[in-house]
Amino acid sequence: xxxxxxxxxxxxxxxxxxxxxxxxxxxxxxxxxxxxxxxxxxxxxxxxxxxxxxxxxxxxxxxxxxxxxxxxxxxxxxxxxxxxxxxxxxxxxxxxxxxxxxxxxxxxxxxxxxxxxxxxxxxxxxxxxxxxxxxxxxxxxxxxxxxxxxxxxxxxxxxxxxxxxxxxxxxxxxxxxxxxxxxxxxxxxxxxxxxxxxxxxxxxxxxxxxxxxxxxxxxxxxxxxxxxxxxxxxxxxxxxxxxxxxxxxxxxxxxxxxxxxxxxxxxxxxxxxxxxxxxxxxxxxxxxxxxxxxxxxxxxxxxxxxxxxxxxxxxxxxxxxxxxxxxxxxxxxxxxxxxxxxx
Length: 343
Prior knowledge:
With 343 residues, the protein is of the alpha/beta class. The protein has helices at 4-9, 12-47, 99-116, 135-146, 162-170, 192-206, 220-226, 229-246, 262-269, 279-289, 311-330; strands at residues 62-63, 73-74, 84-92, 122-128, 151-155, 175-181, 211-215, 257-261, 294-298. It is built from eleven helices and nine strands. 37% of the residues are buried.
């Protein structure tokens, strides 16, 4: 750079040219660094991509029968022929307090349906996602009460995340239709009838391939009224990212109350990579890529104390995951296997 005395002795237009030249050099330098950083990031994203984790620990292949102490019975496979009408998967992490209430509401509804429809069959699979409390024992109380033909507990060797818990629960199920529902009972379980009604319409048109999502979108205005401006901004930002990058046509991707056909569950969850909070987004993205029709229906929902989500941190984490989902599919790090079918 020129000192002040030298600059005074140079023609004015030459000084301007040198300043412009310095600025141009800095601009190119900045652009080059940004390009290198971006390229490095894309390479890291590409190389860090891994196939879906469909493995399970040896202890996760069996469930316990409380009426037969010491017994270890093998879980079936989702590739087996279905033998029940409905399987309910309940992902649970440190839910010893909230799980019993959810199981009470769920099993009472299902038992009443069975009395009205004697041919109706069901099972509930509680998936203990590596809990540190007595979640497994809470589930086994219902296995003891109703029998393991109706209630089973899949206990993980280590924590996988909600998506991972739902995947292995689905892959251990016997039902023709598969519902996953949160352990907090935030969604009124009787609303399954709303999902089933839409499911029948969608499934009839798609020959066995269907997904129906419970939705809280109709409660959004109330939620905005009760939230801070910052949390509202994060909520809308998250919805925009989902719409812009991954899933369109579904107003609420995150409600933990979804009904799937067995074939749809096999195809989607065999391709699923994300095992934590953003798994719903990838699940629906895969379904849309596979051409699986998706329905959405409003459900009754109440916020329950004890959520495992940390509002700001969890939303930021999900935003990052959504961006990575899109990048990894765009770069070919993750690929959807269109040939997966029930055996």
